[in-house]
Amino acid sequence: MRILACFAIALAVSAVGQLNAASPPNIVFVLCDDHRFDCLGAAGHPFIETPHIDSIARDGAMLTRAYVTTSLCSPSRASILTGQYAHNHRVVDNYHPVDPTLTFFPQHLQKAGFQTAFIGKWHMGGEIDDPQRGFDHWVAFKGQGTYWPDGHGTTREVPQTTYDGLNINGKRVPQNGYITDELTDYAIEWLQNRDTEKPFFLYVSHKAVHSDFVPADRHRGRYADQPLPIETPTVEQMDAGKLPMWVRNQRNSRHGAEFGYNLADFSPEVYYRRYCESILAVDDSVGRLMTFLQENELRDNTVFVFMGDNGFQFGDHGLIDKRTAYEASARVPLLIMAPGRIPAGQSFDALVGNIDVAPTLLEAASAPALPKQDGKSFWTALTQNDASGFDRKTLLYEYYWERNYPQTPTLHAIIGGRYKYIRCHGLWDRDELYDLQLDAAEMHNLIDSPEHADRIGQLNAQLWDLLHASGGDEMPLLEDRGAQFPWRNPRKSKQAPFPAEFFRTSEHGN
After folding, report:
1. Residue 281 structural domain
2. I want to staple 410 with a disulfide (CB 3.0 to 4.6 A). Which of 60, 213, 343, 425 is the partner?
3. Using an 8 Å Cβ cutoff, are 131 and 106 in contact?
4. In this structure, how many other beta carbons lie within 10 angstroms of the beta carbon of residue 460?
5. How many domains does the chain contain in total?
6. Exposed (0-12), middle (13-18) or buried (19+): which is 4, by Cβ within 10 Å?
7. Is residue 392 part of a domain?
8. Of 118, 132, 112, 137, which Cα lies nearest the Cα of 198?
9. Domain presence at residue 262
10. This model's pTM is above 0.70
11. CATH number of residue 51's parent domain
């Protein structure tokens, strides 16, 4: 009898496993704003405490080579939703909305029988927070919103900050508390009231950790005395590394370490501590969502994704903010857990981009693919724990110059491999080549090294192949919107000189 009972239990467990594998999984997608790839405990950070986010890596997969194809809030978010490069979806700044003819991948989840909800920062189209296609339930705020409804804790007014509360399914509702916690409350409330007969897709899009970084009161000062793993190179080091003029000039600008946000007393160290403290509430949010799934027996049939929309620089290359193709800006955390589907504890080192999120989640849900996409699904390779099954060698990066923030030029790059090639457009300046294996900090520009001449030619050809293949050989040009910030501090570093190799007395350099 005991043997028969054990056999019956085994059959039952097997049946449950087969059902779990066959039924569409629920999906929770958590997006963290401006989250650097290395600001996680699981990524080896020396002091930041992110146990709940780290648990996704422990019980699922940590994708160690995840990048965004444009390191800026709105373009990256549009690429996540559409699976397209910025040159195709054409959201190239934080002021213009997505074309209404484009398809968002949650629309295809709806067609596959999913109920869908968006909670948080939309931030496409400036002040737009109206309910968007693809979502049955909607909670959002205009622009950047605010960490606290009374604005306490902030030290500067961020463009597109708003204090007029939340749009909940078309109705204006006041914000009551700390935004990271409040968005989590709304997410859990929706989960509690959802239709339990349907699979669900929940998209939690945090304001955190966008500047001006304001930690929850419970976390304020947590890392005030911690030694920091960041360092701002000197002007001399940047010159010796043959960094472009625009990079050296950006050092003394709104997006530079010397004049960050045009504050006379800006300190990357102070801001970095506040940034790390602000991440703690995001980790709490992930923990609360995980607890709900566990307590309601949903965890084992849910794909849980955590991702950053772009990275952030804290003195790297003398810069702050994002937009550039450097690792601190373009590389992001991406962790995915799916019990019974994704083997636990894997370090997945295939090269993936934000354009791959939509195809991957649609495949996971057995939903139809998007009509047009530049990305591709890595779901099968991930579930088989076989990074070689996702064959991508390099990824295209693009950023289009903004009149609002003229410090950063139009950039195209080949990223994700050992060698990173960056091409600036419309400037009388150097391009860039870095050997990430020997120069992880990207501080020794090899663009004029004779031994790399052939490689540079090959990477340039590869860049244009990717642009031609994806229709990126025409740049989006949109009308000016928003404030402009071209300021420099007269007491900080002076304008960078032209590179020495640009000076010649004749055609042959004599």
Report:
1. 25-470
2. 425
3. no
4. 15
5. 1
6. exposed
7. yes
8. 112
9. yes
10. yes
11. 3.40.720.10
Q: Is 19 inside any structural domain?
A: no
Residue type, 469: A
Q: For 349, which DSSP code? A: -
Amino acid at 4: L
413: tokens are: 């790059």
Q: What's the rounded Cα separation, in Å, for the pair 390 and 230? A: 33
**End-to-end CA gap in the chain:** 97
**How many other C-beta atoms lie within 10 A of the C-beta of residue 265?**
7
d(CA 334, CA 410): 26
- 61-84 exposure pattern, b = at least 16 Cβ within 10 A, e = fewer: bbbbbbbbbbbbbbbbbbbbbbbb
In a domain, 97, yes or no: yes
Per-residue CA distances from 120 to 145, 275, 312, 340 (Å): 9, 19, 20, 29
Look up residue 327 and give its two tokens: 């690792």
pLDDT per residue, tens digit, the chain (510 aa), is: 444 344 333 333 333 333 344 689 999 999 999 999 999 999 999 999 999 999 999 999 999 999 999 999 999 999 999 999 999 999 999 999 899 999 999 999 999 999 999 999 999 987 889 999 999 999 999 999 999 999 999 988 889 999 999 999 999 999 999 999 999 999 999 999 999 999 999 999 999 999 999 999 999 999 999 999 999 999 999 999 999 999 999 999 999 999 999 999 999 999 999 999 999 999 999 999 999 999 999 999 999 999 999 999 999 999 999 999 999 999 999 999 999 999 999 999 999 999 999 999 999 999 999 999 999 999 999 999 999 999 999 999 999 999 999 999 999 999 999 999 999 999 999 999 999 999 999 999 999 999 999 999 999 999 999 999 999 999 898 899 999 999 999 999 999 999 998 998 876 655
* Residues 268, 314 contacting (CB under 8 angstroms): yes
Neighbouring-strand partners of residue 304: 28, 337
Helix axes 51-59, 268-295, angle to 10 degrees: 60
Task: Note whether 340 and 60 are within 8 A (CB).
Answer: no
Gap between the Cα atoms of 388 and 331, Å rounded: 20
Both tokens of 335, joined, read 């962790």
